[in-house]
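Bench log. Compound arrived from synthesis this morning; before running ITC I wanted a structural hypothesis for how guanosine-5'-triphosphate sits in the protein. Inputs:
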Amino acid sequence: MRNKVSKKKRLVLTEEEVFRRLIKGDEVGLARALSMIYREEASSSLLSRIYAYNAEKKEKAKIIGITGAGGVGKSTLISVLAETLLKEDKRVGVIAVDPSSPKTGGALLGDRIRLQHLFPNSNLFFRSFSSRGMVGGINPFIFDAVSVLEAASFDYIIVETLGIGQDEIDIVHMCDLTALVIAPGLGDDVQFLKSGVIELVDLIVMNKADLPTASKTVGILNSYTRMVENHPDIVKVSASKKQGIRELIAYIDNKWCELKNTGQLVERRTTRWKFQVGNWMRYIVGKKIHGFVERGEVKPKTSPYEIAISTLREWGCEV
Ligand SMILES: Nc1nc2c(ncn2[C@@H]2O[C@H](COP(=O)(O)OP(=O)(O)OP(=O)(O)O)[C@@H](O)[C@H]2O)c(=O)[nH]1
Ligand SMILES: [Mg+2]
């Protein structure tokens, strides 16, 4: 008999059903909502429901950004953070922002492997997204994925980003609070001190505190942060030895509550929302421009500026 291998039938769900399942924290609802958004099937209606739902929701997720140079131990740290939080019956969503291009589609294999031992667990979710949109700029889906996870009642949503560049700094703006992870031997991390990221983050996590050079690095950092107004605190941990993790979670919880109680959380989320409006506008217009440039007529004798301005005016832009 042909087609003897029976494939599991894919559940057909309406948008209403996807939404209902999502807000109950159901895994199928969550996976389906994310893929609908990624395929832009649900960009307006499902997302509108999600944003309206989250705005009314009393229990907000703690959206925590973890950034830092390559190899400082971000993924190891996230894995032990998740493990500790899961033991406390918390729901944890992890979004890894992959700096590779959407064309090469690198999948942050390292993260998947590091979290592997914690699966299957319906309280844990992991997904990676390419940081760049198809037409440049930050991938707006990442922001919306965080909102989808919030609707699914995750207590903590951890966003891992690599880096130093502007994109990464922008991504930092999408979290409630952000920790910069560094490791002994500063090296690359001097770049962070120079780039001003240190003034943007809420906390510096000094990882690999088990290494003998750790105290020297903390000394250098302390003298540096003293020169910075509103400088971030430094918390020492060793992710691989699982030391200082509880203290780090306590620090994050306290800081988040402080932001909430002082109204700064609302302010940060307003900034985030505005940023995402801009993000989508750049993405949508960028796509239209990309299509136009690819298909457009080539007229080497006409100035590109003239074509650009006349086309934008044709599209109704007041430029
Ligand atoms: N000694 C020591 N090594 C650690 C610690 N945490 C992580 N490492 C090691 O550091 C290396 C890099 O760890 P990752 O967690 O992959 O670092 P990452 O920052 O996620 O790296 P990228 O994803 O490449 O940016 C691995 O070999 C880890 O085992 C620690 O607390 N102490
Ligand atoms: Mg990593």
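What the model suggests: Residues 68, 70-76, 110, 162, 207-208, 210-211, 238-241 surround guanosine-5'-triphosphate (ligand 1) (CB under 6 Å). The chain is about 50% helix and 15% strand.
ITC booked for Thursday regardless.
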